Amino acid sequence: MPRLHRPIPLLLLVCGALTMGALASSHSAEARAAAPAAPTASGDASPPADSTATARWRWPLDPPATITAPFRAPPTPYASGHRGIDLAVAAGSPVRAPAAGTVSFVGAVAGRPLVAIDHGDGYVSAVEPVSALVEAGSAVAPGEPLGTVASGGHCDGACVHFGVRLHGEYISPMLLLGSVPRAVLLPLD
Questions:
Q1: Contact, 96 vs 61, CB < 8 A?
Q2: How many CB atoms lie within 10 A of CB 157?
Q3: Per-position pLDDT tens, the chain of length 189
Q4: In what helix (H) or strand (E) does residue 22 lie, and over which residues does it extend?
Q5: How far apart are CA 113 and CA 4, in angstroms?
Q6: How far apart are CA 149 and CA 130, in angstroms?
Q7: Rg of the Cα trace of the chain?
Q8: Are 130 and 115 in contact (CB under 8 A)?
Q9: Whether residue 129 has a cis bond before it, omega within 30° of 0
């Protein structure tokens, strides 16, 4: 009698889907707990009930925001990836604070001028390349000008790179901007 091989791959597929769904669900729950609510049409976001972190996150550029390269998490901390999003913009355009915080660094990293902001509760954002108007130690409000789009790095005056770390780990800025849809596990039949 021939042996059927179909149930085992189907079982592996179901187990894999359940595992991925559980991981996505727990990650989604953590992201919802850590991230502010989705922005409204005006770009405002409500503060999360359990967070003392910044109350509002917004795009670091004036609208409309066009993503030219999405966030791609590296498989390991030292592997290649794209640890932020690139937003199309013309050189000299204003760059704004994505949320309230304290400017923690202004300067060049690997030849790229950037501005980093500590938002509290483990959140740190960085935008580059930026010709800064602010200094390290300055308090900034959401939407406050940080500087203008400069040249350097992979954007070189045609875009800005916007990255966010939570407790030292890079996360997609889209989580804070309310633009990552919740993962849903669907039945196989």
A1: yes
A2: 16
A3: 444 444 444 333 334 433 334 333 333 333 333 333 333 333 333 334 334 333 489 999 998 889 999 999 988 888 999 999 999 999 999 999 999 999 999 999 999 999 999 999 999 999 999 999 999 999 999 999 999 999 988 888 899 999 999 999 999 999 999 766 666 778 887
A4: helix 7-34
A5: 61
A6: 5
A7: 20
A8: yes
A9: yes
Where are the extended beta strands (E) located within the chain?
67-69, 85-88, 94-96, 101-109, 112-120, 123-128, 130-132, 139-140, 145-149, 159-166, 169-171
What integer pLDDT is reported at residue 186 of this predicted model?
A: 80
Q: Which residues of 58-81 are buried (b: 16+ CB within 10 A; e: fewer)?
A: bbbbeeebeeeeebeeeeeeeeee
In contact, 90 and 156? CB cutoff 8 Å: no
CA-CA distance, 134 to 38, in Å (whole number)? 28
Q: Which amino acid is at 138?
A: S
Tell me, yes or no, if the pTM score tops 0.70: no
Residue 158: which of 74, 36, 61 has the closest Cα? 61
DSSP code at position 72 = B
Q: In the numeric block, which tokens belong to residue 107?
A: 């300067």
